[in-house]
């Protein structure tokens, strides 16, 4: 009789250990999955930030060179979009944009709106974390 009681206690201890290990494994897998999602979101944000900076540099270069006065005039305020595929006539087609970035809106303000009479240039990247 004593041996049967001992076998029953060992069975309950083994079951408890299995349950605790299962709960810990589930918690760790949940944490790993959340970290992966957060890391991917952070990467998408950084890509969008650099795409917006590239848009500003591109606009500064176009205005400096006066390459395309129709799309990049020296007067007025306007917005030009950088996309992976062609859209409007003056859109910048940049096939190397990451998949998460839909477009980059580059806004050029009137002359004299920036520092020391320069033009203010801003860019906003629209992205979705995938």
What does this structure look like?
It is a single chain. The chain has one helix and four strands; from the N terminus they run αββββ. The mean pLDDT is 90. The protein is α+β, with helices and mostly antiparallel strands. The protein has one domain. The chain has a four-stranded mixed beta sheet, covered by helices on one side. Helices cover 49% and strands 18% of the residues.
Furnish the topology, listing elements before pairings.
Layout: H1 2-65, E1 78-83, E2 92-93, E3 101-108, E4 121-127
Parallel strand pairs: 1-2
Antiparallel strand pairs: 1-3, 3-4
Short description:
By secondary structure, the protein is an alpha+beta fold.
Keywords:
single chain; 130 residues; alpha+beta; four-stranded mixed β-sheet; 1 helix; 4 strands; 18% strand; rod-shaped
Q: Output the number of helix runs.
A: 1
Report strand order across the widest sheet.
2-1-3-4
Uncertain stretches:
none
Radius of gyration: 29 Å
Derived from helix and strand composition plus strand pairing, the structural class reads alpha+beta
**Alpha carbon gap, first and last residue:** 62 Å
Number of strands: 4
Helix coverage percent: 40-55%
Largest sheet: 4 strands, mixed
